[in-house]
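Morning!

This is the sequence you dropped in the shared folder:
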Amino acid sequence: MSVLEVIEKKKHGECLSKEEIENTIAGYLSGEVKDYQMSALLMAIYFSGMDKDEIADLTRTIIDSGDTVDLSSIRGTVVDKHSTGGVGDTTTLIVGPILSAYGLPFGKMSGRGLGHTGGTLDKLESIPGLRVDLSMDEIVSSTNAIGMAVAGQTANITPADKKLYALRDATATVDSIPLIASSIMSKKLAIHGDCLLLDVKVGDGAFMKDKESARALAETMVTIGESFGRKTLAILTAMEEPLGRAVGNALEVEEAIATLKGQGPEDLTELCITLSTKLIHLAEGGDMDAIREKVEALIANGKALEKFRAFVKNQGGDDAVIDDPTIFPQTEKSFDVISERDGYLNHLPAHEIGIISRDLGAGRVTMDDELDMAAGVYLHKKRGDRVKKGEVLATFYGGKNRPFEELAERFLSIVRFSDESVSVEPLIIDEVYYGHK
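The structure's back. Tokens below.
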């Protein structure tokens, strides 16, 4: 069947066969199928959707377009987590050491940030000397030696996804659940672990803005995980305001360290404890309350922090940053944003705060942009807090030539206050979808 016939078939809502999907993707990678033809097919998928078999076949085809990573030589049940993107999300740097201290190996491949969201690799590179460009042998040996490794993805994992994503971005077909799910899960399933937790963000700072679409995405990804024999669960978490108080690379790592010391923000701490508990239960079963108690104890007794220290040192980083934050890159200038009124903070939009942090130098517009590791935003007030006129709402950090006053005006224009007390919705907003039997 020609690509034109495939497009026509999907345009009319018919299901594509495994062979039709495979041949079309192969043709696109070879150049036989042109960008304008694939664009038409992506738009047909956007409007007509795909059933679960089509999505599984598309995911498998994307995986088979490149290399896969075998982690079977890591001793024990290998666990992983993936967040669909957010602002201030340092959960990997906290959950990883907790799981490792518990006794579950945490071998993870992560990505870099773009736009309003941060990347785990960028955050880690704010630690002087720390390497994320590990070979597969180094990932395996590090995970076996200390229980944890975090590295960048190999260059040839899911090349079809890289090419398709660029086209989706240019054709307004990014927000299609079959295309999002196959993109995310192909990258995760190309790395052969045992258990996968999906943290699906919902709200202003997330890709999925409402609960219904986030739930649909979660269910689709869990179904894919099931079809590949991976123990998978998804949990929907709020991203209306930044997670924690720090937004920026070194700032977020400092906050992750504080959380491992038991001194982190309440929302970030609670989410990390919950994610760790759910992932341990996925891997081993058992009583959820008892697991949570053990997780909390690993923070309280310092064992999770020591795992983070061992991880930093093992990957070449200066572990003295754990005790001395002045070793992190230091900012040229800081600027306090002052509240112009009394009230309760009612609206703190994650997306716009992520953009402000980016414009201070903490993020990228293109992947070639250079980061200021010390730049970012620290939030002194969060949603629901009582604020008095003249109090500091946030502190900006960045190079001395950044437009601090302009960014402060923008910040003040996006936050909202209420004269009445504000109730804050739970961070975890929906039930967990278990994908294992």
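Headline: Residues 235 and 431 are 7 Å apart (CA to CA).

More detail when I'm at my desk.
O.
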